[in-house]
Design goal:
This protein is an alpha/beta fold. It has three domains: about 120 residues, no CATH class; about 120 residues, 3-Layer(aba) Sandwich (Rossmann fold), CATH 3.40.50; about 190 residues, no CATH class. The chain contains 15 helices and twelve strands. Strand 5 and strand 6 form a beta hairpin. The longest helix has about 35 residues. The relative contact order is 0.06. The model has no long low-confidence stretch (mean pLDDT about 85). Belongs to the bacterial sugar transferase family. This is Exopolysaccharide biosynthesis polyprenyl glycosylphosphotransferase. InterPro entries: Bact_transf, EPS_sugar_tfrase.
């Protein structure tokens, strides 16, 4: 997406340069036709179907691949320019010169852009950011062959995260990097983009794939399976290529890299602006808390965030310091005696959540997303991860200050498993439907519905 935007900007810049040249050296006496032809040429270039695979890293660094990507839309834009200018102007020779000028200017602009992009894509720091880290789960010849091919053939596009056994016992003659539990724990500390399930063919392959995929649901990663395991149970899975290796998709990350960048930019920008705007009010709230009861202004509590990583969430303190429950072993209930006089109103108006803007600025939370829970929170007497298998899917996105569940009334104390199911259903619906427009809608509805919510206490 970024490269396509740069291409559009360069074509527009080249077109402006060509327009100036056309009007001063070619068609200086012609008043109509040039602007319309230029505009149509730009639109044809931008809308012309292109081979997006040629933009994949590291192909984008190859001049031949980029020539193949750009030449057809540039020629199509040039032809459109010539045809329209011929219709609007009587002199076909002038039309041909104008189309040629447009093509030369656009080619120069695109060549400069690609040269700069290629320079940056050869820098080690950039390469390390673009390289996809791939883990292989499985033992035997299939997994070994895949590990070797990824290591030797993929070049700088991929790096091996490790080869892991699907259980604690394995018969592989080579040293592995651990078990599934080791993979899950490492993925929470290190970046992981893809996991490939590569087991030997066996009668229980279908069940093994499903069981391992279920165990890996908490991991924020694309999950693929090798073709030898697909034919037996599902031929309709989408197919992709990792390097030269064909694999079938069984799980995708909910948001693409571009969508993650878009969401992060909006989160940081809005959180920064709102923090500055509310600063005088927040200072007043802090003074009220200090005057009402002894203790710190802020309450910090561990919460589980994206990919299962723990972080410390910031809130205005709404309870008496000596009664605060750091690990949330007991959830807050209506008319809870631990809540202070000021805290009652802070919680009712959701003002106690405002300091989480700091978590957003630190990149630990988003403005909108599933609400984070403390590690020891329970529903129906069970820890949340144990109470509902789908709960771990919430870890695939950053937790939010507000969310789709909150504005639909699914907030407050989790008493039963049904309470948890309702909240998780809204959270997963949000993840499936995510868009920036949806985020803005939720933020607006939060202000309208939740400031005086009957569910907050």
């Amino acid at each position: 997406m970024s490269i396509r935007c740069l291409d559009a900007i360069c074509v527009a810049s080249g077109t402006m340069g060509a327009d100036w040249f056309e009007k001063t050296h070619i068609a200086h006496s012609i008043k109509t036709g040039t602007d319309a032809a230029d505009l149509v040429a730009v639109l044809v270039f931008c809308l012309f179907p292109k081979k997006s695979k040629l933009l994949a890293f590291p192909k984008i660094r190859r001049a031949k691949a980029q020539f193949r990507y750009l030449i057809t839309p540039v020629v199509a834009g040039c032809v459109a320019h010539f045809c329209l200018s011929t219709i609007l102007m009587p002199d076909s020779a002038v039309s041909l010169k104008m189309a040629a000028a447009w093509m030369v200017a656009v080619c120069v602009a695109l060549s400069v852009e690609r040269a700069i992009v290629t320079f940056f894509l050869h820098q080690p720091g950039v390469v390390s950011k673009l390289r996809r880290r791939v883990a292989i789960v499985g033992t035997g010849a299939v997994a070994t062959d895949l590990v070797n091919r990824l290591s030797l053939d993929a070049g700088q596009a991929y790096s091996l995260f490790g080869n892991f056994a699907d259980n604690t016992r394995h018969d592989s003659g080579r040293k592995l990097d651990g078990t599934l539990d080791d993979l899950i724990h490492r993925s929470r500390r290190e970046s992981l983009h893809a996991i490939i399930l590569a087991f030997p063919e066996a009668g229980d392959a279908e069940a093994k794939v499903r069981n391992v995929a279920l165990a890996l649901k908490p991991v924020l990663s694309d999950i693929y399976v090798t073709p030898n395991l697909v034919s037996g149970f599902d031929r309709v899975l989408p197919c992709e290529f990792l390097g030269e290796n064909a694999v079938f998709v069984i799980q995708r990350r909910p948001l693409s890299d571009i969508q993650l960048v878009e969401k992060a930019i909006v989160d940081f920008s809005l959180a920064f602006c709102v923090s500055i705007f509310l600063l005088p009010f927040l200072i007043g709230v802090a003074l009220a808390i200090k005057l009402d009861s002894k203790g710190p202004v802020f309450f910090r509590q561990p919460r589980t965030g994206k990919n299962g990583r723990e972080f410390m969430v910031y809130k205005f303190r709404s309870m008496h310091t000596d009664m605060s429950d750091l690990m949330a072993a007991r959830q807050t209930s209506r008319d809870d005696p631990r809540v202070t006089r000021i805290g009652k109103w802070l919680r009712r108006l959701s003002i106690d959540e405002v300091p989480q803007l700091l978590n957003v600025l630190r990149g630990e939370m988003s403005l909108v997303g599933p609400r984070p829970h403390a590690p020891h929170t329970r529903a129906g007497g069970l820890l949340l991860d144990d109470a509902l298998a789908e709960y771990v899917l919430r870890y695939h996105v950053k937790p939010g200050i507000t969310g789709w569940a909150q504005i639909n009334g699914a907030r407050g104390e989790l008493v039963t498993i049904d309470d948890l199911k309702k909240r998780v259903a809204y959270d997963l619906d949000y993840i499936r439907r995510w868009s920036l427009v949806f985020d803005f809608r939720i933020m607006i509805l939060t202000i309208v519905r939740e400031v005086f919510s009957r569910h907050a206490f």
